[in-house]
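Below is a complete specimen:
___
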Amino acid sequence: MIHGIFSLYAERWPFFQELILQHIKIASTAILISGSIGLFLGILISEHRRFATWIIGVINVAYTIPSISMLGFLIPFTGIGNKTATIALTIYGLLPMVRNTYTGITTIEASTIEVAKGMGSTPWQILYKVKLPLALPVIVAGLRSMVVMTISLSGIASYIGAGGLGVAIYRGITTNNAAMTYAGSILIALVALASDQLVAYIERHIRKKWHLAP
């Protein structure tokens, strides 16, 4: 089996290379959108906590919908292909970002915020210079979880006519070619691991810039 997988890589590497690029494009688009929206919503509900229960509740409900069902719900509105896959992945990526941003900010000790206020800091300065740096470890944990999950879930995109490494998995299943299925799955795992390490590197860079303890 292992020999068959590596033989596939050697013989059809341009095919897999194209699928990897498609996979990264779909996943990175969803990660960028859900990361931005999730961070914004997390900050919003941490500053206006009366909305927290409702927003997190709605996102929780969406998160419990099976991925295939989510794609089925979206197809009548957005059709088949990368667009629908990106929307579904964006929805799934919201929960870890919103929840971790909210948790990271709201668990900061009130005395720390009071000290910042006493020094004359504006609400924006408190958010940017106090809350976000202190909440960074929790936010990044949510981001890393979301990145790995999104890249893994991107494999289902092939079921609705989108690209990515799911194409190799789907083709392997339909043709009873186990080597093709494993080859696609291994590459998805490697892309996810590499992306996780990239996020960790960015976190270290931000910590260094903000002079935060590792």
In short: The chain has one domain: 2-209. The chain has nine helices and no strands.
